[in-house]
Amino acid sequence: RVTLAESGGGSVPAGGSMELSCKASWYDNNNYCLGWIRQAPGKEREVVAAVDNDGQMRYADSVKERFTLSHDKVERTLSLQMSSLKPEDTAKYYCAHAMGPVTTRHVDYGYWGQGTQVTVSS
């Protein structure tokens, strides 16, 4: 079993900052990838940031230089510090788990949390 629980989210003005956190359980500590996936109405699902058990990280071009991923592989937590937020960042954000190396393909993620809404106002 894999469980993921997000916390954080809410509303913030454009240009503001917000941090999302995730607590994960039951994944193989030597063969996993954790990522943040966002879904907005009318848009494709997007893996905005991901990290695997070797510490490899990937960011979507849309958030690079603005979002920072951090991971504690012992505590199995995942955090996403979001800065310089834009209205187009508005989405429901999910913490998700995949098997294998770091990936930014959302279809690779078999387990998703319940999600948390992030709304960035203009």
**Helical amount:** under 10%
Please mark out the parts with pLDDT under 50 across 5 or more consecutive residues, or reply none.
none
Mean pLDDT: 95
Q: How many beta-strand elements?
A: 11
Distance between the termini: 40 Å
Number of helices: 0
Q: What does the largest sheet look like? A: 7 strands, mixed
Structural class comes to mainly beta
SSE order, one letter for each helix or strand:
EEEEEEEEEEE
Keywords:
122 residues, 4-stranded antiparallel sheet, 52% strand
Describe this structure in words.
- The chain is mainly β and 122 residues long.
- Helix content is 0%, strand content 52%.
- It is built from no helices and eleven strands.
- Strands 2, 4, 5, 6, 9, 10 and 11 form a seven-stranded mixed β-sheet that branches. The chain has a four-stranded antiparallel β-sheet with strand order 1-3-8-7, with no helix packed on it.
- A hairpin with a 4-residue loop joins strand 5 (46-52) and strand 6 (57-59).
- The termini are far apart.
Summarize the model shown:
With 122 residues, this protein is mainly β. Helices cover 0% and strands 52% of the residues.
Topology of this structure?
Blueprint: E1 3-7, E2 10-13, E3 18-25, E4 33-39, E5 46-52, E6 57-59, E7 67-72, E8 77-82, E9 91-98, E10 109-112, E11 116-121
Parallel strand pairs: 2-11
Antiparallel strand pairs: 1-3, 3-8, 4-5, 4-9, 5-6, 7-8, 9-10, 9-11
